[in-house]
Amino acid sequence: MLQETTNAAVSNAAGLSQMGFADMIEHMDAVNWTVLIVLIIMSAMSIFWIIFNAIKNARLRGSSDRVINTFWETPNAQDAIRFMEEQPKSEPFSKVALDAAQAAAHHQRHEGSRLVESLNRSEFVDRALRQAVTRESLKLEDGLTLLATVGATAPFVGLLGTVWGIYRALIRIGASGQADIGAVAGPVGEALIMTAIGLGVAIPAVLGYNFFVRINRGLNNKLDTFAHDLHDFFATGSRVGDVAPPAAKV
Question: Whole-angstrom Cα distance, residue 204 to residue 122?
């Protein structure tokens, strides 16, 4: 009796040792490898976009106020536009200001033409600003679709590995004729590890997506406010709330 108990304990210990990650790698089949590789690719892509957006948003949050304030505080319109042209291509506020300035200048150059007759200055600048804000807002969303996709699908990809592991455990039970821990430990361990990997891939993607959506909402609000001020300035010659704008700006 004691010998049987000892043998059972040794068998259980040997079975439990098969539930580790190293044993899973050693005994994985094609389905397990496919699931694991897909999860690794999804994780790599989500980490890349999380880091990319973190750096981009940190830079934008640090430079947006500087760009906006410099534009309004520069007494000469040409100097303000030149400053905007010197900004990086990824800086959205300068690009919106340049589009508004180009639209206003284009409209002024074609005074007396059919363009001016069909659209007044305010409408022409407004159309350019709408297009610019939409374009820059879409750029702020780079990578968010992938993060949302990874967050929504990674648990199900891991679940596929879980189901396959349970299926393999059932096959072992049928082949051995007994449901001891040694027969099912390996496949069940693979199933649990795949579930954990799927959740480990999905959770950072979901957190990153929610975080960047919140930050982008603030940047988009600031972009809309700046665009409204630009419209007032280029359409009327002054911002709403300006008492006496410099003549050089108009």
Answer: 45
